[in-house]
Amino acid sequence: MADAEDFTAFYAATFQSLCAQLYVHTGNMAEAQDVVQEAFCRALTRWAAIRTYDDPVAWVRKVAWNLATSRWRRVRRLVALNHPDLDQTVPEPTPDRVALAEALADLPERHRQAVILHYLADLSISEIAAITGAAE
Fold first, then answer.
1. What are phi and psi of 28, to 5 degrees?
2. How far apart (Å, rounded) are the C-alpha atoms in residues 136 and 133?
3. Tens digits of per-residue pLDDT, 13-51?
4. pLDDT over threshold 80, residue 65
5. Phi and psi of 38, rounded to 5°?
6. How many Å apart are CA 36 and CA 61, to the nearest integer?
7. Which of 29, 17, 32 is nearest to 65 (CA)?
8. What does the H/E/C string look like for 45-80?
């Protein structure tokens, strides 16, 4: 029972922040929520081990990021095969959001990930290097 309560508290404390980070990465809130939710589902089945990690949220973030990347690749393959575009309903973005999205889109994927992790997740350079496998 303590494990379930512990996971529930972890989920409640981190879900929104992870969704915001993945939204900036994907550009779609529904997609961000889906991949974060899936990452939490995977974490729940491994919670006994993950809860002992120094930074359990890093594990969930990495899984969610990988899921988003896999989905993006799958969609890109479908588009390349001339499948109909996926219907997306997205609220109208604010001018600031458009400017931010354009600026992030100009960055290579690894740099974009580092910027998101640093400014939205408040991670240090050494933590980002550990997550991405890049040198500090």
1. -140, 115
2. 9
3. 999 999 999 998 888 899 999 999 999 999 999 999 999
4. yes
5. -65, -40
6. 8
7. 32
8. HCHHHHCCCCCHHHHHHHHHHHHHHHHHHHHHHHHH
Query: Which has the higher per-residue pLDDT, 15 or 82?
Result: 15
Report the distance separating Cα 46 and Cα 1, nearest Å: 15
Q: Distances in Å between the alpha carbon of 117 and those of 112, 113, 131?
A: 9, 6, 9
| Token output for 41 | 């589902």
pLDDT (mean) for 72-76 = 69
pTM of the model: 0.62
In this structure, is the dihedral angle defined by the CA atoms of residues 76, 20, 52 and 43, taken in order, positive or negative? negative
Q: Return the residue matching tokens 């990495």.
A: 62
Residue 86 one-letter amino acid: L
pLDDT digits (tens, 9 = 90+) for 110-120: 888 888 888 87
Assigned token pair, 22: 């993945």
Element (H, E) at 122: none
Confidence class for position 62, pLDDT limits 50, 70, 90: very high
